[in-house]
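User: I'm preparing a small set of examples for a lab meeting where we compare how different chains pack in three dimensions. I only have the primary sequence for this one, and I'd like the structure in token form so I can line it up with the others. Please keep the answer compact; I'll paste it straight into my notes.
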Amino acid sequence: MDVLLLLALLAWAWPSPSRAAAFTYQLARPSTQRSSCKPVPSSMTLCHGVGYSEMRLPNLLGHESMKEALQQAASWVPLLTKQCHGDTKKFLCSLFAPVCISDMEEPVYPCRSLCEAVRDGCTPVMAAFGFPWPEMFNCSRFPRGNELCVPPAGPDDRLQLPKEDAVCAACISRGPSEKEFLENFCSQDFALKMSIKALASEDGDLKVMPELKSRTLYKQEGWSEEELKKPILWLVQGQTRAPWFWPWATRWPAAWLSPGCGGGSEARGS
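Assistant: Understood. Below is the structure token output for the 270-residue chain.
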């Protein structure tokens, strides 16, 4: 969707001057920083292909720096892979990277109908992993549609996603081949198959503590008996290199397989 098409979708709901003056939605902590247009960074995976090139900063969730917006947006990328609703990206990006129109002072919020459609489609998926629909996405805070806002896609605009890809299309299409996986596995010092009990962050690294009853260690050379009883895996710079891993890992109902180097207390995942 290019900028002209986006503006066309918004134009039908353009408010009268009296309504525009009364339009005062607030979603997050107030910011004293003057808003400005910034390029949507290529590193913002959540909003790849969103249809416009400039975003408003501070955004509609109160993130004042691009670094903060990127870190927070990354946590929601896993929800896109679940394909719970066709407008999930549009809704999330309207908050994390709201479109910036240079001659407009007021931000463009998502319509309430867009929020409700995504909420109804994604709440069951999030609940399955122990996450409620967050208060910062409370749909009652958004305009009903008689003001300028980002509407849901019409039937002709919505991307039709194949049912068989609903689990994780990104993982299937971009993952390494079996040959590459085996080569990587064989070149590492060990591999740890585990369900994750807890995570901790230390200086940007992630400390991964597996469930003892559900872990299997392959290639055990370099591990003492004590370390085998309580293995710990370190993901170097994991908090910045894999920000999506932090909020989801302990909730994901599956085992993880991590090859790595070193051993025992110096075990590092890859």
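A couple of notes for your slides: The chain is about 30% helix and 15% strand. The CA atoms of residues 206 and 235 lie 5 Å apart.

User: Perfect, thanks.
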